[in-house]
Write a structure and sequence with these properties.
The complex is a heterodimer of chains A (about 110) and B (about 110).
Chain A (H helix, E strand, L loop, with lengths): L3 E4 L2 E4 L5 E7 L5 E7 L5 E8 L2 E5 L6 E7 L2 E6 L8 E9 L3 E6 L3 E5 L1
Parallel strand pairs in A: 2-11
Antiparallel strand pairs in A: 1-3, 3-8, 4-5, 4-9, 5-6, 7-8, 9-10, 9-11
Chain B lengths: L2 E4 L3 E5 L4 E3 L1 E4 L4 E8 L5 E7 L5 E3 L5 E5 L4 E6 L8 E9 L7 E2 L3 E6 L1
Parallel strand pairs in B: 2-12
Antiparallel strand pairs in B: 1-4, 3-9, 5-6, 5-10, 7-8, 8-9, 10-11, 10-12
Classes of the chains: A mainly beta (about 110), B mainly beta (about 110).
């Protein structure tokens, strides 16, 4: 029944590693997002996909690469992890033409050590 | 470009007392406005939204907010809070566009005490 689900919920990894976070939505939405919440709880958009097409790519290091295999999935791959990448990453989805509010997943807490 | 300012970073309040969280936005075009709540170690849950129509909007858990275009504000209120309302509250804005990305305020921590 979960509307927007992310895996894993917690991720602890060493600097330099490559990791992925997966996101799936079962709401039939056409747009999916990745947001980053830093240690001060500030939320900022990273990427957005509409019908598998990248429409937002904020100022994010090239080490971050989103991939959308279909409208229901948006994964985030991070290469060469750095200490500063530690944050909570939220996936969200919306059906922008009909109702612009975003529905959020539970978040993935990434800790780079 | 759109932006949001939440005027209070922390709001302590006693149980059953009223609470108001202030939010101002900046945009050169028409906007949609939202309030989200984040309970500890959880995701964001939509409390309420203003898309159009009546400027007073009601949301879940007894919250309401009023859109004031002239003052570019969207303040959140609840007449009587419960311990369970202790959480982080975020005001967000999105402009009429093709992407509807949300810009969030810095958040307001509400702590309800008995």
């Amino acid at each position: 029944d979960t509307a927007v689900s992310q895996t894993p919920k917690y991720l602890v990894t060493q600097m330099g590693n490559d990791k992925s976070i997966k996101c799936e939505q079962n709401l039939g939405h056409d747009t999916m997002y990745w947001y980053k919440q830093d240690s001060k709880k500030f939320l900022k958009i990273m990427f957005s996909y509409n019908n598998k097409e990248l429409i937002i790519n904020e100022t994010v290091p090239n080490r971050f690469s989103p991939k959308s295999p279909d409208k229901a999935h948006l994964n985030l791959h991070i290469n060469s992890l750095e200490l500063g990448d530690s944050a909570v990453y939220f996936c969200a989805s919306s059906r922008v033409r009909e109702s612009p509010e975003a529905f959020f997943g539970q978040g993935t807490r990434l800790t780079v050590v | 470009a759109q932006s949001v300012t939440q005027l209070d970073s922390q709001v302590p309040v006693f149980e059953e007392a009223p609470v108001e969280l202030r939010c101002n936005y900046s945009s050169s075009v028409s906007v949609y406005l939202f309030w989200y709540v984040q309970y500890p170690n959880q995701g964001l849950q939509l409390l309420l939204k203003y898309l159009s129509g009546s400027t007073l909007v009601k949301g879940i858990n007894g919250f309401e907010a009023e859109f004031n275009k002239s003052q570019t504000s969207f303040h959140l209120r609840k007449p009587s809070v419960h311990i369970s309302d202790t959480a982080e509250y975020f005001c967000a804005v999105t402009e009429f566009s093709n992407d509807y990305k949300l810009s969030f305020g810095a958040g307001t921590t509400v702590t309800v005490r008995a």
